[in-house]
Amino acid sequence: MRNLMRIGVAAGVGVVLLTGCQSDDSTDDASNDRPSAQATNAAGEVPTTPGTPSGSGASGQADSLDGGWLGESDVDKVAMIVQKKKVMLAFQSADGQKRQACEGLLQQKSILLKCVEDNKDRLKGTVEISSGEKIAIAWTSGKKDLLTKSGNGQMDFSQWGLPSPPAAG
């Protein structure tokens, strides 16, 4: 029950974080670098640019993904925190009707999550692209998320109402 409440708090804070971080009053074109549904091609694949590692050449190392990540998929806003192989993910549907929080592990390029409700969208995923500032995750459900490192790449877990994960040993 306590774990369920922690995850529920994470989802609520994640939604606030997502909606708060998505607005930018700046008129600078750089503010339009946010990932969006247009970041995928017609086949639902995330295109790569020259020099961007992808597929089996992607970094995939857990330490290289540490930090906070924000982005969108075709229908969801997504926030993810990775810290020493521990993953916390929150997402909200574009219409705001569906919210979910999940916790799990990152093992090389694989993400394995457990979610609060019977969510099947993001239980198992693979990091397909990792450039240090952007990652693409393909989920076995067929969903794809394109995420960008948030700010300096760090998020304080206490902002999500969650304790910091234990140090990996």
TrEMBL record:
Low complexity composition-biased segments: 47-60
Q: Where is this region: Disordered?
A: 24-69
Per the UniProt record, the source organism is Streptomyces liliifuscus
Protein name as catalogued: Lipoprotein
